[in-house]
Design brief:
By secondary structure, this protein is of the alpha+beta class. Helix content is about 40%, strand content about 15%. Helix 3 (about 45-50) crosses helix 4 (about 60-65). Bound molecules: guanosine-5'-diphosphate.
Length: about 140
């Protein structure tokens, strides 16, 4: 069982398509509580840092271009078993593989423009939340 905090981003495609509200509604209906939230935009360099783990992958440059192409919404969420439950809710990376009812099945347009991010471990949730939010902005987590 994972810890009770995860980090998500509504990615540029979903924000641009006007799906942010619908996605946040689903997330809240599934029992996740919003602990911190901001509308922001990644520069190429910041997108590169965030996805540094994929540096050697052939899609890295495209991914950084895409992730810096428009606004995103960064959110820290809380729920029991947050990481596992949220990964289930967003579905597989490739929307063609994502089960019906998952956010990516409903809103993603391609394996790259797949609407939403979800941390894959407690450790990464902490790192990714700290990437976007200052100590002051995380006041509600205490
Ligand atoms: P996630 O944990 O499901 O988000 O997937 P990964 O950590 O493997 O990949 C990070 C992000 O890179 C994905 O969410 C996609 O936006 C993008 N991505 C993953 N695989 C591919 C790929 O094969 N091609 C392209 N263009 N983008 C990809």
């Amino acid at each position: 069982m994972s810890g009770n905090t995860t980090f998500t981003m509504i990615k540029p495609d979903a924000f641009a398509d006007g799906n942010s509200g619908a996605i946040i509604k689903i997330i809240e209906e599934r029992g996740f509580r919003i602990k911190a939230l901001k509308l922001t935009r990644l520069s190429q360099r910041k997108a590169g840092q965030f996805y540094a783990v994929h540096k050697e992958r052939p899609f890295y440059k495209d991914l950084c271009d895409y992730m810096s192409s428009g606004p995103i919404i960064a959110i820290i969420l809380e729920k029991e078993n947050a990481i596992d439950d949220f990964r289930k809710l967003i579905g597989a990376t490739d929307p063609k593989q994502a089960e019906e009812g998952t956010i990516r099945n409903m809103f993603a347009t391609s394996i790259e423009a797949n609407a939403i991010h979800g941390s894959d471990s407690d450790e990464n949730a902490q790192i990714e939340g700290d990437f976007f939010f200052s100590e002051l902005e995380k006041f509600y987590l205490d």
